[in-house]
Amino acid sequence: MNKIASTQLHIYSPTIDNNPVNTPIVDHNGEILYYAKPPDDDLKYEDQFDLTHYSNFTFVLNKGGTLWEEANLYLLNMIEDDAGYSEETRISYKTVAAHAKALQDYKFFCDLKDDEHELSEEDRKTKAFWMIAKRPTNRPNFKYKEHLEKRMLNQELTPSTVKKMIRPITSFYEFVQRELGMTFETTMPGKKFGAIIDTGNGNGIFVEGNEANRVRGATNFDDGYIRDVGKLRPLDEGEQAQLFKVLHDDGQPEMILSHTFAYLTAARMDTVFTLRLNTFINSLPQDYSDAAIRQWYAEQKQMEPYKEYDVMIGTGTLIDAKGTVKNYELKVPGYLIQMLRVYIVSERAKKRREAMRHKQANPLHEYVFITDKGQPYYVAKSDPHKSKYKNPPDGGAVRVFKTNVISKQIRFEYSFHFLRATCLMNLIRTHQKLVADGVWTTDQLECFVQKRAGHQNKATTQKYLKYKYLEKHRAEAIEIRAAKLLSWIGDMGVANNGKTKN
């Protein structure tokens, strides 16, 4: 299918006309207004992409507060390019916002350069810093990259952050040349190159890159963290014990279980908090009397405590998964599934589901973890109610809990995503004895960890294997680790007849 690109930027205007082609909105006073499509807009945006999924669209501005037209067209075309994908794989509004943020920072930088050159408002329309590239050495995006690299060397930014800020700029320049017909006197955004990436088992894929995205000093940058969609640091044994003691003493089942799930499965925050009831149960009790719950337990599939069960996440599952891997399996121990079942039929969880403002059509598709305000901790990409939230929850309540509860009682740096790194490092320590005994090769261990982590790129897995923390600790059997965990958080219902804190 040939793509029709938007090459003009039209802004919808508020009106009181309730014409069927206009989109209703509610203003800050609760009055119903409508977004009217400009009369000269023949691109039929509504036929190309559904604006309701991008209700938090972020605009990029010039210094004076006017819209940077080319940048906003780029953002709109990101959405249009994605129009053919399914509900679960469509581009996230947060991805669009991240590109907008990167472009806005770049525009600030370019505007400062224009100020230095004392460009008039008229000259900024045709001779702005971002538009001019006469020689490779004075390309504006490369000047910006040098600025970011200096900040990286001063430890103001990490290499991964710098790369995230640069890549949208590269894509933007490719767009304005391809779709808007802009020309430059030198190659923009930079020279292209090809490379083969090893994906394991002797296979590889050919990828194209651009020199504009290369960050100097990033390869040898070592600040004690693992880069795995963010900065991660495995917690040592003492830190793990401290963390779970804090969680146990605080006593909130949602925080205990969600942190435990991440700790045992290496699931990321968006995965943990988009888990659904049907992941762990096949029905809900007819009522919540003791007799009904006993009957309900008998009807559920029985789990062996120390056996691991597969839970598929990603495309087609309702559960979010980050990265380019469409879906992969988490390994969940039976005793954790039992703990989750105890929680799901608790009075506390039942009340939270009843308080949900935007309930799922199928009760079994409801989120496992819901806040006391009656909303999910994290709204899934596939949630049909996503556009109804002014600010869709994205883990903010978890971060507030970390700040208000965890960080006040521990003496080490902590992030929820550290649990992912901790889980993977624990797996490596647990299984490295197999390598030492000659049962496994290093490659087999690497493949094992790669599969458990859902890494598409083997290089990411290797960061864990090379992490200096690995040499400091001995391997431990999974039963011992489970016993330690249960001693930290308590049984959560496995040994107390299904009772949990309400």
Strand order of the largest sheet: 1-3-2
Specify the biggest β-sheet: 3 strands, antiparallel
In DSSP terms, counting alpha (H) and pi (I) runs of 4 or more, how many helices? 16
Helix coverage percent of residues? 25-40%
Strand content: 5-15%
Q: Helix-strand pattern, N to C? A: EEEHHHHHEEEEHHHHEEHHHHHHH
Alpha-carbon distance between the two ends: 55 Å
| CATH fold category name of the largest domain | hpI Integrase, Chain A
Coarse structural class: mainly alpha
Q: Per the principal axes of the C-alpha atoms, what is the gross shape?
A: globular
Care to count the β-strands? 9
- CATH class division of the largest domain: Mainly Alpha
Question: Can you give the mean pLDDT?
Answer: 79
For the record, the CATH architecture of the largest domain stands as Orthogonal Bundle
Assembly annotation: single chain
How are the SSEs placed, and which strands pair?
Blueprint: E1 13-15, E2 23-26, E3 32-36, H1 45-48, H2 69-81, H3 93-116, H4 140-153, H5 159-178, E4 192-200, E5 203-210, E6 226-227, E7 231-232, H6 237-250, H7 253-265, H8 269-272, H9 290-299, E8 308-314, E9 327-333, H10 334-344, H11 347-354, H12 396-406, H13 418-436, H14 442-453, H15 458-466, H16 478-489
Antiparallel strand pairs: 1-3, 2-3, 4-5, 6-7, 8-9
Helix pairs in contact: 2-3, 3-5, 4-5, 7-10, 7-13, 13-14, 14-15
Any descriptors?
502 residues; 3-stranded antiparallel β-sheet; two-stranded antiparallel ribbon; 9 strands; disordered C terminus
